[in-house]
Design a protein that fits this description.
Elements: H1 5-9, E1 15-22, E2 26-34, E3 40-42, H2 46-54, H3 61-81, H4 101-115, H5 117-123, E4 127-131, H6 137-150, E5 155-159, H7 160-169, H8 179-186, E6 191-195, H9 204-219, E7 224-228, H10 232-239, H11 241-247, E8 253-257
Helix pairs in contact: 2-3, 4-6, 8-9, 10-11
Organism: Pseudomonas mosselii
Keywords: ATP-binding, Nucleotide-binding
GO molecular function: ATP binding
Amino acid sequence: MAVQISDLFHRTPAKRIFAGQCPVHGEVDKTEVEQLDGSMLARGCKRCQWEALHMAPRDGEAYAQAKAQALAERTTAALIGAGITPRFAEATFDGYVTESDQQRNALAKCRDYAEQFPTHFRAGRSLLLTGNVGCGKTHLASAIVRTLVADRCRALIIPASDLISIARASMVPNSGYTDRDVVLHLGGLDLLAIDEVGCQKGSDYELGLLHAIIDRRYQAVLPTVLISNLSVDGLRSYIGDRALDRLRQNGGMAVGFTWSSMRATA
């Protein structure tokens, strides 16, 4: 049975349906929907929301509330689908703590990358976030993805280990997809951010898969963000000259995170 490859990478929020009472419509089905922080939020009567959106005066409070709720639901679903996890639910540029010039420089470069993304997108300009553990690389990458999702870009942040696991699972009989499907899907997103590159053992299959995805995006002139605890030289040793050079084409940017972990003081 064929599967939708996008469903493997872009998760939909969990939902629970339960019986509830509406003062207008009586007994109705209500829902609890997963939020970005992992909690569940009960929603009101869907019939009331539909009527407020389609029948209430556009200048009234009921319409405004229903429209705001619908927008919040779409935004949450889009961010969950883009790979933002509960750990980084609040990861924004404004929330990134800076105490040194190096940290301020990292923040400025990542913010600029997100805010000037149309320019970087047209150039296929990639971004490398490399260096020490606990310096906020995933925080800033998540903030980039969050910004692009708000602009309706097709963006995804995913750990390299998850990407590899999904591709390996295609080898199971009757999986319904191939690792080629994985490469084609990830190779066509507006932005792909691959986290924790270099944490794997670096088998021929793992490196071949990463090379195929990077090359696919390079050929399509699409930008990629690579996040790694390795230095740039260490990353070059891990993925090879060819892959790294393709990420540095067209003015590809690199930000080094060389200070001590911020987690110890968090």
